[in-house]
Design goal:
The complex is a heterodimer of chains A (319) and B (318).
Chain A lengths: L4 E12 L2 E13 L4 E5 L6 H9 L6 E10 L2 E2 L12 E4 L3 H4 L6 H12 L4 H14 L5 H4 L9 H13 L5 E5 L7 H17 L3 E6 L2 H5 L4 E6 L2 E7 H6 L4 H9 L48 E3 L2 E3 L2 H7 L1
Parallel strand pairs in A: 3-8, 3-9, 6-7, 7-8
Antiparallel strand pairs in A: 1-2, 1-4, 4-5, 9-10, 10-12, 11-12
Helix pairs in contact in A: 3-4, 6-7
Chain B lengths: L1 H28 L4 H6 L5 H11 L5 H13 L13 H36 L4 H15 L2 H15 L15 H35 L2 H8 L4 H39 L4 H10 L3 H29 L1 H6 L4
Chain lengths: 319, 318
């Protein structure tokens, strides 16, 4: 089966006053139809940039330097003639900033259908009300006439999700959709995503810095560190038997409520500067299992059944 | 909405009071006894005393102020010493010229400033951006009287395209009237053009970096729609306030422009009044201009409420 989305050796170059750097730097992964893939990593690891590159929305100082992006069998790397808003859509982190403050929600949503699907105003309105109601926005007809600042945080994110789902996309990219919300609202929005996942054939690329959030919804998880992929694994195996030392550290850092009084674990050290990344494996300065070779050469991908890991510990085992 | 308007209008009252008080005190600050100045150095002492009494200058200061306040509130700005005519009627006679001039200048400033600012922002850090920035700065820095004279030299004296000074004659047709306003409006408008262009540019740049513009791109809608419906509309909200405030500056700038182009407007009346030591006229005009400024600001605030949904909705139905 061909994947819906195939990202191959993608590298994005950023030009800054301090110099050029690459993030992500050569990532390869795929998303299949109906699948939910989680993308996890610390800030600066390149998860959001990966998403923006897929959407063809890289900022002005960035460009795809290497690799390609195939969507539905079509190369969309250049960003021209892009299927965004038609077959692909995105939900952003901060719903208040992501909505036009001086435009009624209804107009902001109807616009997608009127523009991309040439619907009449009435048709669009009907569809928008339908979608909003389905996504748990009460009195949708009345809410259409409201401005973003009159919505609560949770409702705003629901409206954003409605906006993304209007075109019934094949791929929905959700970039930290719950991070800016209150914990209780977070839970509601997560339930909504789970509901979306089970009720539609839309594939989801769910991005978060929070492994425990992603694990609630994802079928597979991609772990990124400093612009590189460490590990790709189905969610269950990832938690039961994390392969990469970074993943192991991440999982160990999730606090365990059953073990009262135990010390909160963390990964020692800091994320490296991407302007001058470490040689070899980028995680080696913080890795507690590093070998001689880790400081010299970058590990290759090692395929282990349905999992992929990039670490010298397994390179040996693979041979 | 009505509540908002009412609130703003009530807020104007104390401002008005202080403006009147300032106009009153300014006249008191001028050295010398007005009665003596008015009657001349040869006047007899008892004449001066009688005149002082007539003007109420022998009364205590607060009483004088109350009398002045009452007169102003009933629309009496005094009588011009030179023209021997009510100050208000003199002002109202000249007002249309100044208002026409200011509005023409504003139209020029808006129709050049906004497109220039938008273009500069869209081509950020390009040659066009640099050009607009430099021209806007020049517009802000060039003195009106110098620029006005340059316009006269080039377009009237050298090229002979447009008349240099004075008002047109309506009996000679519309063009004669319009042509007399073109150079003064340009000279006056250049300052505001610079301000509006700079403001539009920075506001547009800020908006283009907002998350909701990225959302609009993510929707896959046309670029022209993103720029017009999402970016420009939001960018213009602060610009509209600036435009409104420019109207006040233009009224002030009219003083210089009318002098250079010999237009019989409020500004020229003021300058003439100052040169001829027509205190009543100057006091009346200062007060009138200040009040005009206050009401222009009020109108801007109310207009702002109409375009800003946040204010509109907050006061909805009240």
């Amino acid at each position: 089966m061909n994947p819906l989305l195939l990202v191959e050796d993608l590298a994005v170059e950023f030009k800054t006053r301090l110099g050029k750097f690459y993030v992500p730097d050569g990532v390869t992964f795929s998303v299949f139809e109906g699948e939910c893939v989680g993308l996890v990593g610390e800030s600066g690891s390149g998860k959001s940039v990966t998403a923006l590159a897929i959407m063809g929305l890289l900022p002005k100082n960035a460009r795809v330097a290497r690799g390609r992006i195939l969507f539905d069998g079509v190369d969309i790397t250049s960003g021209n003639d892009h299927p965004r808003g038609k077959k692909m859509s995105m939900v952003f982190q901060n719903p208040l900033n992501s909505l036009n403050p001086n435009m009624k929600i209804g107009q902001q949503l109807c616009e997608v259908l009127e523009e991309n699907f040439k619907m009449s105003k009435e048709e669009a309105r009907k569809r928008v009300i339908e979608t909003m109601t389905k996504l748990g926005i009460p009195e949708a007809e009345k809410m259409l006439e409201r401005y973003p600042f009159e919505y609560s945080g949770g409702m705003r994110q629901r409206a954003m999700i409605a906006m993304a789902m209007l075109c019934e996309p094949k791929l929905l990219i959700a970039d930290e959709p719950t991070t800016a919300l209150d914990v209780t609202i977070q839970a509601q929005i997560m339930r909504l995503f789970k509901q979306l996942k089970s009720s539609s054939r839309t594939s989801i690329l769910f991005i978060s810095h929070d492994l425990s959030v992603v694990s609630q919804i994802a079928d597979r998880i991609i772990v990124m560190y400093a612009g590189k992929i460490c590990e790709i694994s189905p969610v269950k195996q990832l938690f039961e038997d994390p392969l990469h030392p970074y993943t192991q550290g991440l999982i160990a850092s999730v606090p365990d409520l059953k073990k009262k009084g135990s010390k909160l674990r963390s990964i020692e050290g800091n994320v490296p500067s991407l302007l001058d990344p470490p040689t070899g494996c980028r995680f080696h300065p913080r890795c507690n299992k590093k070998l001689e070779i880790c400081t010299q050469h970058e590990p290759d991908e090692v395929q282990m059944k349905d999992r992929i890991v990039k670490c010298w510990l397994y390179e040996k085992a693979g041979i | 909405m009505g509540k908002y308007v009412a609130k703003r209008i009530i807020q104007v009252i104390p401002t008005l009071f202080f403006v009147i008080l300032t106009a009153f005190l300014l006249m008191k600050l001028i050295p010398g006894d007005p009665a003596m100045i008015l009657l001349g150095p040869q006047a007899r002492a008892e004449d001066i005393a009688r005149f002082r009494q007539q003007l109420g200058l022998d009364r205590p200061l607060p009483v004088q102020f109350l009398i002045y306040l009452k007169r102003v509130l009933t629309g009496d700005l005094g009588t011009s010493l030179v023209y021997r005519q009510s100050v208000l009627s003199l002002i109202l006679e000249r007002l249309p010229v100044t208002v026409t001039l200011s509005l023409c200048a504003l139209v020029i400033a808006v129709s050049i400033g906004i497109p220039a600012g938008v273009m500069a922002a869209m081509k950020h850090n390009s040659f066009i951006d640099l050009l607009v920035t430099i021209l806007a700065l020049m517009g802000l820095s060039i003195p009106i009287f110098w620029f006005g004279m340059m316009l006269i030299i080039v377009f009237s004296l050298e090229l002979g395209w447009l008349p240099a000074v004075g008002l047109g004659d309506p009996t000679k047709g519309l063009w004669d009237v319009v042509s007399h306003f073109i150079l003064p409006s340009l000279a006056l408008g250049i300052l505001s053009t610079g301000t509006i262009a700079r403001f539009t540019r920075s506001s547009m740049l800020e908006v283009l970096n907002q998350d909701y513009i990225r959302t609009a791109y993510a929707k896959g809608i046309r670029r022209s729609l993103i720029l017009y419906r999402h970016a420009l509309r939001n960018a213009l909200v602060p610009v509209i306030t600036v435009i409104g405030l420019q109207l006040g500056n233009l009224l002030a700038g009219a003083v210089l422009t009318e002098t250079v182009f010999a237009l019989p407007g409020l500004g020229k009346l003021m300058v003439d009044g100052i040169f001829r030591r027509d205190y009543m006229l100057v006091q009346g005009e200062v007060l009138f201009t200040a009040i005009l400024y206050i009401f222009v600001n009020l109108a801007v605030d109310i207009a702002y409420a109409f375009i800003n949904p946040k204010i509109r909705q907050t006061y909805r139905g009240v």
